[in-house]
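Customer ticket, subject: "Can you confirm the structure for Pseudouridine synthase?"

Message body: Hello, I'm evaluating your service for our small team and ran a test protein. I'd like someone to confirm that this is what the system normally returns, since I don't have a reference to compare against.
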Amino acid sequence: MNGQEKDGGAREGERIAKVLARAGVASRREAERLIEQRRVTVDGQTVTTPATLVTEGQDIRFDGERVGGRPPVRLWRYHKPDGLVTTHKDPQGRRTVFEALPPALGRVLSVGRLDLTTEGLLLLTNDGGLSRALELPSNGWRRRYRARAYGQVTQNELDRLSAGVEIDGVRYGPVAAKLDQIQGGNVWITLSITEGKNREVRAILRHLGLHVNRLIRTAYGPFQLGGLQTGAVEEVPTKQLKEQLGAKLSAELGIGRK
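Agent reply: Thanks for trying us out. I re-ran your input and got the following:
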């Protein structure tokens, strides 16, 4: 299926992968993989390329189930427990975040990921566009963590991280870090980062000779873990979401649209 074309070759419509992401079926990248697996049809024809264009009113289906119109954009705070992987399907058979969520939540996407053993705030959304927007480093939102680590460190050593650090050829941006408590052979540290590179906090503290044995994300930009209980999910009110994103981005994403 090659999408819609007008006379003269002008194309109209929206890319199928984008439509699937907006409907909460999957992120745009994952939607492209689903299309490659020939699991998506439009008007009864199997879609073979994510470049396929579709228009309103066409019968779009994923694994035989019709994909409805775009639902209202929603965001949830989730207190991820230790021991869950942030993926829809784990090849090693480990339990996933999405298997642990209440079924009534429906299909959602995570905003970024947390490692298997990292606890704390994980944002969830039913909209691929919102997920991408919240992940962009350009928004400047800080991710805040509390880390318990085995070893010794001084505040002066932590202060030097404010200039960033290069580890094994990888450059990490400025880190705000505060030594909160010394507890036996462990230290508790609060860290704030903006990039969110893979296993960034663990890599930086390992560079200082510390072994992280507990890591909790307490904030993602303006959204806080607060007193949310482990395993609990709570929706962010639409009004609050719009206030945090600003009028322009909220309008682009259709937040608050009926």
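A couple of notes from the result: The longest helix spans residues 28-36. Helices lie at 16-22, 28-36, 97-100, 128-135, 155-159, 200-207, 238-245, 247-253. Feel free to reply with more questions.
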